[in-house]
From TrEMBL:
The keyword Iron-sulfur applies. It is an enzyme of class 2 (transferase). This is cysteine desulfurase. Belongs to the class-V pyridoxal-phosphate-dependent aminotransferase family. NifS/IscS subfamily. Coiled coil: none annotated. Its EC number is 2.8.1.7. PANTHER family: CYSTEINE DESULFURASE (PTHR11601:SF34), CYSTEINE DESULFURYLASE FAMILY MEMBER (PTHR11601). Its cofactor is pyridoxal 5'-phosphate. It catalyses: (sulfur carrier)-H + L-cysteine = (sulfur carrier)-SH + L-alanine. NCBIfam families: PRK02948.1. Keywords: Iron, Iron-sulfur, Metal-binding, Pyridoxal phosphate, Transferase. Residues 4-365 form the Aminotransferase class V domain. It comes from Bhargavaea beijingensis.
Length: 381
């Protein structure tokens, strides 16, 4: 592919080792993991081994992992599954204004069904306050869902502190860790969560595969009906090649966590340093927060996001304005709106640069130089 791809928070290229596992298994392991014959048992072993791998990476038990079709399905299973399982105990849900649309829209749908949702704010750094969670809790609160790290600006949320608060409450605690898993350490016991979502395509794995961690004893009603796969929690024949590829991608990602963190932090320094030397006007959104190493969201005063993205793409710099699920929309970022308020200039001039596999320091420097040239021309600087 021509150009420099800096949209790894949207999706990532498949790692060559992951691709090898995936393509080999497509033809070598074709059995249904629910079948008792030889090909079925071979598929079952791969499924069990993969479950053990990913559960071990987050400090969970293998039986606590439900393989799904991706992060959105995992979020929906957690939210709708909890709402149905606990509807007789209460109908109050707490979430935040900066969640991914897989959580936002699921909660909005529950509002339409008669549930009451409290939407917590975020500060100017994109951080949710644990104290706000505490104050919002009620006797009829059945679910609290707060993302582990924001997909647009990268702010890492205080999940451990929120988990500590919820130890004294009966609400189920879910975190969307799709952007965090494989980028920062994630341990379900330390975080104190009951449910956790993750996805393969964010960590150089294939699209269409994810998992939901369900702590033993956590109530959950599957929103779909069918066979008894995944311990009756997610019907449908398991995608064994995809699941095994996900496990491989997760192994690779976690083995290189420290190395990639340092590399991506250096990419941020190169990007911002090069832009500073160019003399253009810019600022870092969530610049004072603890953020994911691979996400850098920048505001360029005097520019408009649509023309900025188009011109960057023409220059061979492939980035986005935020969530890939709304990249084709002209609506301003709901995350930046929550941080800065409706009508703030950052909503119309901010770009997310996100780093990952295959990039070099030379790529980042070149991308920054081309970005500076585009911004200078568009802003008349």
């Amino acid at each position: 592919m021509n150009g420099i791809y800096l949209d790894h928070a949207a999706t990532t290229p498949v790692h060559p080792e992951v691709a090898r596992v995936y393509t080999e298994l497509l033809t070598s392991t074709y059995g249904n993991a629910s079948s008792i014959h030889g090909p079925g048992r071979s598929a079952r072993k791969l499924l069990d081994d993969s479950r053990a791998t990913v559960s071990g990476l987050i400090g969970a038990r293998p039986e606590e992992i439900i393989f799904t079709g991706g992060g959105t399905e995992s979020d929906n299973l957690a939210i709708f599954g909890t709402a149905e399982a606990r509807s007789d105990e209460g109908r109050h849900i707490i979430t935040t204004a900066i969640e991914h649309h897989a959580v936002l829209n699921a909660c909005k749908r529950l509002e339409n069904r008669g549930y009451e949702v409290t939407w917590l704010p975020a500060d100017r750094e994109g951080r949710v306050s644990p104290e706000d969670v505490r104050k919002a809790l009620r006797d009829d609160t059945i679910l609290v869902t707060v993302m582990a790290a924001n997909n647009e600006v990268g702010t890492i949320q205080p999940i451990r502190e929120i988990g500590g608060i919820l130890k004294e409450h009966r609400a189920t605690f879910h975190t969307d860790a799709v952007q965090a898993f494989g980028e920062i350490p994630v341990n379900v016991g330390e975080l104190g969560v009951d449910l956790l979502s993750a996805s393969a395509h964010k960590i150089n794995g294939p699209k269409g595969i994810g998992f939901l961690y369900q702590k033993n004893g956590t109530k959950l009603v599957p929103p779909t009906s069918g066979g008894e796969q995944e311990r009756k929690r997610r019907a449908g024949t398991e995608n064994v090649p995809g699941i095994a590829a996900f496990a491989k991608a997760a192994e690779i990602a976690h083995a290189s966590l420290g190395q990639r963190r340092e590399r991506h932090e250096s990419f941020k320094e190169i990007m911002t340093g090069t832009l500073e030397k160019s003399g253009i006007d810019f600022s870092v959104n969530a610049g004072q927060a603890r953020t994911l190493p691979h996400v850098l969201n920048l505001s360029f005063p005097g520019t408009d996001i649509e023309s900025l993205l188009v011109n960057l793409d023409l220059a061979g710099i492939h980035v986005s304005s935020g969530s890939a699920c709304t990249a084709g929309s002209v609506d301003p970022s709901h995350v930046l709106a929550a941080m800065y308020g409706e009508g703030a200039r950052e909503l119309r001039n901010s770009v997310r640069f996100s780093f990952g596999y295959g990039l070099s320091e030379a790529d980042i420097r070149a991308a920054a130089e081309k970005t500076a040239a585009v911004v200078r021309r568009l802003a008349g600087q």
